[in-house]
Amino acid sequence: MTIPPRAADTLVIGGGLVGAAVAWGLASRGETVTVLDEGDLALRASRGNFGLVWVQSKGDGMHDYARWTRSSADIWPDFSERLKEETGISTDYHKPGGMHLCLSEQELEKKRALSHRMHNVNGALGYGSEILDRKQVADMLPQIGPDVVGGSYGRHDGHASPLKLLTGLHAGIKARGSHYVSGAGVDKIERDGDGYSVTTVKGVFRAGKLVLAAGHGNSALGPLVGLDIPLRPEKGQILVTERVAPFLSMPTHAVRQTEEGSILIGNSHEDTGFSTLSTTPVMSQIASRAARFFPLLKNLRVVRSWGAVRVLSPDGYPIYQQSETHPGAFSVNCHSGVTLAAAHAMLLAPMISAGQLAPELDTFSARRFHGQTH
Amino acid sequence: MVRRIETIGNEVIFSFEGQPVNARAGDSVAAALTAVGISHLRDSVVSGSARGVYCMMGACFDCLVEVDGVPNRQACMTEVRHGLDVRRQSAVVEVRS
Predict the structure, then answer these.
(1) ipTM, 2 dp
(2) What pLDDT does B95 receive?
């Protein structure tokens, strides 16, 4: 293994989906980037992701987030294609649209109201979901069970393999002449001339710019560069079944079939701190709900399960911010590492490279949690 | 060549691809088939090439077979029983509704 150079244009702290997407984007602008990754002791949200590229349901309380998510979904096909050309690794991205399945009239009514609100604010540029009755859903997904009353279909939605995406981004970073260092948890960040030096167990690294993309780690790293990044953990659990022939033509919010044929079942939201344990009561709830969506799932065996911790800001929306006291130091946080990967690589990275976040990202500053006085 | 290091346990007879296989009580299906020299348990649904036992401890999912009509059973995690009908798996499994 070659020893990574001690100086780069930008240091990215965090080698998950967020850090890797930004690093790959920066490297494509001709920057040399060094990605410092904590290692397998980290929470590893990117390894536990469900894999939706999801537009519907995003941004009800922050319309800039709805538009940002939609932008990412729009450039995902190009992003995925470029990554494959460069690395030979397919992300298994498909964009057949996505379905949120509803098991009660109240749930469907909520989705209808949400769809109206989103359409009123963002028009055709935003949300783009339509409410379908049971028969319309059954035309698209004939295997739904009798309890499904309808659904919300988002034509901009899709899905991809989070693990292949992460592998591809890491390969792309290397292919573009940048470096990834594992086991490099950060001890110290200091100003160094007009840049920064970062002390890790793997040595000291130096760069002109710094991107914090360490998920929950950003809460501790932020204050080192004058940023206050409030985050909360939320656990989600996932079940995986044996592989079977393709029968789902599109992903749904809680069940999707991978390229290999496995069925992923998920969508729990638990306030259990930083625990990533699989727990029987929640697994059983997830499985019984999935069997109401698609009764044939009862005939499949579950072969794996895991829990992972989402990285959520207090309002659930991403945080993008450059430090005022430490110019060139940026914080990037979100819980939709797959959906926003394209935006992070192709829209956000060029802004960071230019040293300035565009005005359209002003609303994503963590200042929104600290009042207007800052 | 694989050989048993001991032959404790009562004899159990099950079938693989319709042919009788002599095993010992307590064997896994994978161990019993390995002991009689059968290593081809399924065909890869991707490449079509032969697959068999690898990890022998439930982790790799390479030894999948059909057991009494149920597909995708791990041969290494399934204990032999008298009369068990084990089949080689050669196609993509269709989920039954």
Answers:
(1) 0.76
(2) 87
pLDDT score recorded for residue A358: 97
A17-28 and A162-175 helices, crossing angle to 10°? 30
Task: Give me the domain span that covers residue A192.
Answer: 7-49+163-230+316-369
Alpha carbon dihedral B69, B20, B90, A297, in 10-degree steps, equals: 20
- pLDDT category at A1 given cuts 50, 70, 90 is very low
Q: Which residues contact A331 (CB under 8 A, 6 or more apart)?
A: A211, A212, A218, A222, A225, A227, A229, A319, A320, A321, A323, A366
Contact residues on chain A for B64, CB-CB shorter than 8 A: 242
For position A372, what pLDDT does the model report?
52
C-alpha to C-alpha distance for A19 and A42, rounded to whole angstroms? 14
Report helix, strand or coil for A336: coil
With an 8 Å Cβ cutoff, are A244 and B97 in contact?
Answer: no
Residue A128 has pLDDT above 80, yes or no: no
Number of domains in chain A: 3
- Chain B residue set in contact with A, beta carbons under 8 Å: 45, 61, 64, 71-72, 92-97
Same domain, A219 and A357: yes
Residues A306 and A236 in one domain: yes
Q: Please tell me whether residues A214 and A357 are part of one structural domain.
A: yes
Model confidence pLDDT, tens digit, residues A23-49:
999 999 999 999 999 988 888 999 999
How would you write chain B as a 3-class SS string?
CCCCCCCCCCEEEEEECCEEEEEECCCEHHHHHHHCCCCCCEECCCCCCEECCCCCCCCCCCCEEEECCEEEEEHHHCECCCCCEEECECCCCCCCC
Domains of chain B: 11-87 (3.10.20.440)
Higher pLDDT, A153 or B90: A153
- Contact A144/B at CB under 8 A: no
